[in-house]
Specification:
- The protein is mainly α.
- It contains eleven helices and no strands.
- The chain has two domains: 91 residues, Helix-hairpin-Helix base-excision DNA repair enzymes (C-terminal) (Endonuclease Iii, domain 2), CATH 1.10.1670; 102 residues, Endonuclease III, domain 1 (Orthogonal Bundle), CATH 1.10.340.
- The chain is elongated, with a radius of gyration of 19 Å.
- The N terminus is likely disordered.
Length: 236
């Protein structure tokens, strides 16, 4: 049995039996092997956004649009010292908040979303971040991706699967979907991945996309699922 190559950034090297002619495997069987491999490689995968409560996670996720998690964490390190409650964000001076979050990009739109979401939380939800998809989607700046991040990570509620750029890209490389729209990708993934894996699988694919299956130069020799990968061109 070959051993997955180890390098400083690879989470957990492990030995596995390679699958020959993975294309002949039924989708259900291939997905089962894929999930098992990811469980070995990323057993403790979790959200990379630093947060102490659901409100902070909501704000961080809004800020993460078109921005790296690392940059968001740098910004929120001081942001969350100044803005601690829903009311702090709801009644923030927009110009001051814009300057606080400016490094994350699209700071004006993000400021409107954060203040608008905080006001609705204060006025309609008793200052608490909701626990349902329907209520989450009422918040300004919140779509399914953000709602799934908050519900899954903060409350461990599996309402769907987070589809960010990494999850979307890897879903195509692994031939788990042919769709390009994130909502349709999510629907396809929800049909083939057990519900109890919905929260973890997104974290695992995100970490795998960052550390190994990178967009421009994937580290195929280091990949624990390389033999299960359908991608002929490893740069798609």
């Amino acid at each position: 049995m070959p051993e997955t190559p180890s390098h400083p950034r690879f989470p957990v090297p492990f030995r596995f039996q390679r699958v020959k002619n993975a294309r002949t495997l039924p989708l259900k069987a291939r997905v089962k092997k894929l999930l098992a491999r990811l469980d070995h490689a990323y057993p403790a995968a979790e959200c990379a956004l630093t947060h102490a409560n659901p409100l902070q996670l909501l704000v961080s996720t809004i800020l993460s649009a078109q921005c790296t998690d690392e940059r968001v964490n740098q910004v929120t390190q001081t942001l969350f010292q100044r803005y601690r409650t829903v009311k702090d964000f709801a009644y923030a001076d927009p110009r001051e908040l814009e300057q606080e979050i400016r490094p994350t990009g699209f700071f004006r739109n993000k400021t409107r979303s954060i203040i608008g979401a905080a006001k609705l939380l204060a006025e309609k939800f008793g200052g608490q971040v909701p626990r349902t998809m329907e209520e989450m989607l009422e918040l300004p700046g919140v779509a399914r991706k953000t709602a799934n991040v908050v519900l899954g990570t903060a409350y461990e509620i599996a309402s769907g699967i987070v589809v960010d750029t990494h999850v979307g890209r890897l879903s195509h490389r692994l031939d788990l979907t042919k769709e390009k729209d994130p909502k349709k990708i999510e629907q396809n993934l929800m049909k083939i991945i057990p519900k109890e894996k919905w929260i973890l699988i997104s974290h695992q694919l995100i970490w795998h996309g960052r550390l190994v299956c990178q967009a421009r130069k994937p580290r195929c020799p280091d990949c624990p699922v390389e033999d299960l990968c359908y991608s002929k061109d490893k740069t798609i």
